[in-house]
From TrEMBL:
The keyword Acetylation does not apply. This is Oxidoreductase YtbE. Keywords: Oxidoreductase. Pfam families: Aldo_ket_red. Residues 33-268 form the NADP-dependent oxidoreductase domain. It comes from Paenibacillus allorhizosphaerae. Its EC number is 1.-.-.-.
Length: 282
């Protein structure tokens, strides 16, 4: 069970790099001052992990938020853990290398802490992985991984990969508990990371979660995020509101009982809000 007790607590990935358990996600947040302020607020309130992607088209604002946050807070760039992802259109060897450079330029950074293949596009992700391995070996990125990979994608990739993915970032929430994938990743030493942990808000009115939240004096969102962490899953809830950013990080001062974990587990319906990786029109 995850025993993290602070927003800056980390897990050590299989290459020795430490990654925060909790981060700020910025999916569907447009470029502009709102996003810059959200990044600054997150850093101000203790977050050290920020997750973006090329397809989000907001790397410039994320980078500006990081730049301003570093000026306003007594921390160094090395204390932050910044993630981006290569989009499907760039999943070739040279194209992925170029996409990485473009993301760095947009973010205004010298390196990324984590770079992911965003989706397992058939026939393309192996060449992209070769590019990520090169970036990693060249010291351009501290960790590499994948996103939305099912077990068969991971098995296929690892047949030829020289470096095993460190992270698999997938849709994960009480309606999609990914039990078999979690078990496989645990066995392989691949750390699971959750996107859409709150099911884009659809679980916040769930009566079971609401009852548990009332018992702990916490919000529904805090209960779900705590459930993630106790399952050993890194999580990156999205918010642009300072109050919600603070609330999402206030999940380290309590622990869900085994019974309550099982009650939340039982909400699983294998239900997605995002695309099915096996039936996604790339």
């Amino acid at each position: 069970m995850n025993t993290a007790q602070h927003v800056q607590d980390k897990i050590t990935l299989h290459n020795g790099v430490a990654m925060p358990w909790l981060g700020l996600g910025v999916f569907k947040v447009e470029e502009g001052s709102e996003l810059v302020d959200a990044v600054k607020s997150a850093v101000r309130h203790g977050y050290r992990s920020i997750d973006t992607a090329a397809i989000y088209a907001n790397e410039k604002s994320v980078g500006e938020g990081i730049r301003q946050a570093l000026l306003e807070n007594p921390i160094a760039r090395e204390e932050l853990f910044v993630t981006s992802k290569v989009w499907n259109a760039d999943l070739g060897y040279e194209a992925t290398l170029a996409a990485y450079e473009a993301s760095l330029q947009n973010l205004g950074l010298d390196y990324l802490d984590l770079y992911l293949i965003h989706w397992p596009v058939k026939g393309k992700y192996k060449e992209a992985w070769r590019a990520l391995e090169r970036l990693y070996r060249d010291g351009r990125v501290r960790a590499i991984g994948v996103s939305n990979f099912q077990i068969h994608h991971l098995e296929d990739l690892m047949q030829e990969a020289e470096i095993k993915p460190l992270i698999n970032q997938v849709e994960f929430h009480p309606r999609l508990t990914q039990q078999e994938l979690r078990r496989f990743c645990n066995e392989q030493g691949i750390q699971l990371e959750a996107w859409s942990p709150l099911m884009q808000g659809q679980l916040l009115d769930n009566p079971v979660i609401g009852e548990i939240a009332s018992n702990y004096g916490k919000s529904a969102a805090q209960i779900i995020l705590r459930w993630d962490l106790q399952h050993g899953v890194i999580t990156i809830p999205k918010s642009t509101k300072a109050q919600r950013i603070i609330e999402n990080a206030s999940v380290f001062d309590f622990q869900l009982s085994t019974e309550d974990m099982e009650r939340i587990d039982a909400l699983n319906r294998n239900e997605r809000v995002g695309p099915d990786p096996d039936n996604f029109d790339f």
